[in-house]
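[audit] Reproducing an earlier prediction to check determinism. Same input, same settings, fresh worker. If the tokens differ from the archived copy the diff job will pick it up downstream; this log only records the rerun itself.
[audit] input (271 residues):
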Amino acid sequence: MEASNRLNEGIKASQTNAYNNLIGMLKDLDTYRDGRIKRTKANLKVIRRINIALTNDVLTEIYLSRVGTFLNTFDKVEDLQTVYFKDAFKGYNFKEIYDVIKTQSINNAKDLLLSGGIDTNLSQPVKQILNNNLLSGSNYSKMVEEVRNFMLGNDEIDGRLLSYTKQVTSDSLHIYSGVYNEAVSEDLGLEWVKYTGSVKDTTRPFCSTRAGKYYHKSEVEDWADKKWSGKMRGTNSENIFYYVGGYHCRHILVYVSESIVPESVKARVKS
């Protein structure tokens, strides 16, 4: 969605800004003439300062504003879901629990995108890289290159922060959509789903073989025992309905009326 894309587009600037500030602070490290880093308490203090500064360098006003805009996207997802269920099922009535689900989903995404998530997924790993190089007395240039590859990435992979926020923004919205679907399906007693979403060259086989097809809930539950590339850690027979194909999955299990399920599918389940 647009808000998710805008947030991720701005991450590149945040990565670069944080990296440049970090390099400026690394210049305070004491080194030997041959470029090796000295194992001193003064250098340890520099690394501690960097760890604190790194999270703050990311959490700029622009970044926080974009996160806020992204979190508003949950309202749009809810609106789309509500319209679908109202059109497809006459027995649909909005319930308070749906708001509870949305609020919790927003809070989870917020935690991942703000200080706690940034510290765990960026600042702490960078600190570990710096500590390892300091303790081993590595060459300063080698350490800088390692930090650069981790923070900014290269032609083949995204920088750590961009990779992380892409996953959070994508997974949080799709998981919320799936959890919302599950709550409504329980209220309406729905048992049939359609594996919905487009298929691209990058689509994992688990999804491409199922996209566009109808399944009974019991079949979906059995998928949790299978193994496939990209499967989300902790997937089980309950959460697979919103984890679906795993990390970065863009597919959704949409609940449908039994009346539109092909007879061949019903016969397959009965057999």
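[audit] rerun output stored. Observation attached for the diff report: The two ends are 41 Å apart (CA to CA).
[audit] end
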